[in-house]
Amino acid sequence: MSVMRLESYAAGAWVAPSGDLKPLRSAVTGDVVAELGSQKLDFARMTDHARQVGGPALRAMTFHDRAFAIKALAQYLNDRRDALYELSYETGATKPDSMIDIDGGIGTLFVYSSKARRELPDDHVYVDGALEQLSRSGNFVGQHVATPLQGVAVHINAFNFPVWGMLEKLAPTLIAGVPAIVKPASSTAWLAEACFRMIVESGLFPEGAVQFIAGSTGDLLDRLTGQDVVSFTGSASTASMLRANPKIIGNSVRFVAEQDSLNASVLGPDAAPGTPEFDAFIKEVHREMTAKAGQKCTAVRRIFVPDAHRDAVTEALVARLEKTVVGNPRSEGVRMGALANLAQRDDVLEKAAVLGTEARRVFGDPDAFSVTDADAAAGAFVPPMLFSCDDPDGAQKLHSVEAFGPVSTIMPYRDLGHALKLANRGEGSLVASVFTHDPAVARQAVLEAGAFHGRLYFANRDTGKEATGHGSPLPHMVHGGPGRAGGGEELGGVRGVMHYMQRTAIQASPDLIAGITNRYVAGASTEEIEPHPFRLTFGELEPGRTLWAGPREVTLADIEHFAEFTGDTFYAHMDEEAAAANPFFPGRVAHGYLILSFAAGMFVEPAPGPVLANYGLDNLRFMKPVSPGDTLKVRLTVKQKTRRKDEYGEVRWDVGVYNQDGEQVAAYELLTMNAM
């Protein structure tokens, strides 16, 4: 493998390293893999390029345009994974470890693209929440919206996931419409740079959308404004140093921090040896100790078990650890590779020694362990180390010092409340897991420990193989945690996109709100013209296009026929005396679904045409009873359009049903798929 000279990508051009070159070494052999330069980048030019070129180009695209580009990028990277796997081995990662990083990152792109196309509009403005009525007449209303920040996102990533860490930040940032400058950790930067080159080579995003720093950030943070965002993953000490930058404080720069934490796993009091929960717990803790050689911000550091099961847990974990082969990640049979570098190895050994002052080591001697197909001294190898603590209440360092490697400590507890108090002593974590089949145990865990953990993962016999695991952040769910864990959030679907957007409260007339959001709102002007809106294609329909249909009288015979036909003979429809005794009804009334059926009968245009399917309705409300003899009319208004495929799109219709006095009796939103 030839030595790579890592380049930065600034203002649309690759910049070669210069000055004193820093060698980056293989975690497995110690050989030089890459060189990192100390070139001085023009950060003023980079930030200007992002704000003036990349930002406007991204904002000219809709949310869906950007989401489709993210999907195409995922497909592009997916076809080139093998090259990334080869480079990943030199970080000390096994093939399964590399798949967590590389496949996990690509999978995150796919999920974000899909969620954005389902949950965000094919537009430039995101509508956040429902319309707020601010006046009695309805002529003055409020709406929260979100638009992209007009700055740049600075992504500072950690060494342990050079691909996933980069892609999980880029996905929501680019979908939001904000350009990014990526700064990977130096020790594994060759893998991040290789993936970033693929992003640039794909040509899927406009010029200025992404830039890359191989080396120091220099005075970059000094150039940030209130329109910019810093998203950081790494140590608490580095985060504190970056947060203290006067420009970040003075300009109220958004700072999203995801820090390492002392995550915990609790074996529930009901999960005795022999139960599926016990077996799943042992398997999961072992996996969390050894995957990525324990270099995961979500790895289990503290293991809480009922005192009565402490020996059984220790024996079961030691048995698994004894079968864990450590060595060259390219070699067959190796299950755990090396730490990222020698400095990381030294730090883990130092921290493990500190933990050893409050707990005894029951497995893993760093001075006497075997390594397969590698030199233990030349590579950054350590054995998995399991400790056991007799007095978790009296311990201090076990709840405050993290050895960022394959190191974990077993601690006994008296009862569940005791276990949760011990878990909370980590002062904020990214995740805690509880293995239980008892809903009461799960509820107590949420009530007593939820405030201290960004995610609570519950596993039992029911979740089985479909469960993703304690240490797997998912793009659908928030990743982050309070206190020691950084107090920030990443991922979480659209929640992650919102970190790069500004929520703005809009107060205006319904017509202006409709014009701003490009969707119909109650009280806005409508237009009723020929032809029937069901005869118009997706492209021909516009929000506000309306059809009034009816009238249709509701008779007692209709109600009785509907009851007999459907089997719905609820007393309010069939028994005059009982219905009149009900405080909601004047007597016998029409079924709600009869009203919906009559509404459809009034507005549907039966001929084949642009409407391909009716696939549901949302927000159904019955607002006033309909009595025999009432006459109904229906209003059908285009509320919103969302492109789904090249061939068709979703049309959301606002439907109102009214009686002969103009009183609204039902409201809902109809969803159809319409041909383009």
From TrEMBL:
Domain Aldehyde dehydrogenase residue range list: 15-503
Keywords: Hydrolase, Oxidoreductase
Superkingdom, taxonomy of origin: Bacteria
Domain MaoC-like: 546-651
InterPro entries: Ald_DH/histidinol_DH, Ald_DH_C, Ald_DH_N, Aldehyde_DH_dom, HotDog_dom_sf, MaoC-like_dom, PaaN-DH
GO molecular function: hydrolase activity; oxidoreductase activity, acting on the aldehyde or oxo group of donors, NAD or NADP as acceptor
Descriptive protein name: Oxepin-CoA hydrolase / 3-oxo-5,6-dehydrosuberyl-CoA semialdehyde dehydrogenase
Organism from which the protein derives: Nitratireductor aquibiodomus
